Amino acid sequence: MDYINAFWIGGLICALVQILMEKTKLMPGRIMVLLVCSGVILSAVGIYAPFQEYAKAGASVPLLGFGNTLWKGVKEAVDTEGFLGIFKGGFTAGAAGICAALVFSYLASFLFDSKMKR
After folding, report:
1. Which residues have a Cβ under 8 Å from the Cβ of 5 and sit 6 or more positions away?
2. How many domains does the chain have?
């Protein structure tokens, strides 16, 4: 049942983002920022943790999950280091995911021949 919940909730998030892209004039970069900020806000309010517990990877893999990761990192760093944790926590929490994205995209650039759009 976990796989089914992850599939339909992840698909629902993607479908809502697709509707947002087609019905508004928002650029994809702004929509991505909106998703990350929404994940942070939902985490701060306490809604995201039960949602992620139910949806598993369907909620943790999209950009909402990245916002949740940033929030948890900042919250933990503020609890341990005080005010400077505001600036340090998000980088520490998101470092592994960002590093993996950079490494895998770099490796993909060697495997595939990219073409410029004209």
Report:
1. 54, 55, 56, 58
2. 1
